[in-house]
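Entry: DUF58 domain-containing protein
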Amino acid sequence: MSTLRLRPLPSPYARALLTVAVVALALGIVLGRPDAAVLAIPLVWTLALSGHRALPREVTVVARVEPPVCFEGELSVLHVTIDGWPGPCRMDLDLPSGLRMPPDERRTRKWLGLAPRANPRQTYGPRGEWHLRSTRWGRWSAGPLTLRLRSPDRLWQARLNPAPAVLTVYPHAQFAVLARDMAAGTHPRAGEHTTRLPGSGVEFAAIRPWTPGESLRRVNRRASERSGRLQLNAFADERAVDLVVCVDAYQAVGPPGHTTLDVSLRGAAGLAQSYVRAHDRVGAVAFGGALRWLGPDVGDRQFYRLAGLLLDVRRDETFLDPDVGRIPRTALPPRARVVVFSPLLDPRAVAVLRDLRMRGHSVVLVDPLVTRPHGSGQLRPVALRWWRLHRTGLEHEIARLGVPVVHWDGTRPLELPFRYVAVARR
């Protein structure tokens, strides 16, 4: 809600009346025809009694989006209400690239009249609403919004540009497969990830002899009859993990809406959502432009906090080199699984992987780069071959660090080879 001050100006209709009155007076004086000057009297009288002083000096504009937070592809409604203006109003709405109207609401200009209120003491004011569909993640302003106000007698007008409402669009969470077969990085907390240690889980592990003092609830009768001794069913222990997703925002290549940064954010959101639903702690680190982090935590609120952190990732001309050592211990706890989304277009991303490995974390790299370089001429095959050799050498360098590389285009479910991380870590 914002209160704006008005500066009423003569409308084109008032200027036309004034022009006709001046021309009639001039013709009456020049030609000596008083009957021509008489035509200007009602026009001048109308302009003099137009009621300029009776118009309000301030109006209240309320622009809100319901719901103010949504995901990509969902619908929202923009409501605009003007209080304190007695005449009609025209609203012109221009939308950014991340918002569009459904096909049945292509008109961006609406003439709105008076709408009576429930309380007769309140003033009358125009209202309007638009249905908006979000196409890309980000924080988008539903505007600029231009209000053109006219007085009831159409002789005065005013133009306002109120502050537009902000719509927060979270990246669409891409479906990710939850890795439950990795023993490295687990914690003593109870969870849904199977380990190699015996415990009280539900995943069958082996059959072992019974020792005195143990409960007889898990006795395997058939194995006991064959061996002549009591045999128990052993189950694997299930524990929780800490997951930290890292997003490289140095470069973003590809078509709009499907750049490497868009694919990385959707993959990070889907991976975080899968682990949050499994009651694991999830955190985030974003480097590029500025270093941001969010400590691991549990619950649906953590997912929305993480999505809000990812929205702040933007490319910037002035940025700092990623120094993982500056991240506090609460953001990168020991024995945490780290998933890095990076197209490897900047050498500093490799430095981040090296720093994470030196700190003892289990790291997996997700490469969202599916766009190949374009060009023309005779050197195109040579340049493309050199680029492929460079990418292959870069992947071998990362493999020597013990970091598995997953190529993902954002169209299929995200499956990470966590089962090999324990071997690479040793």
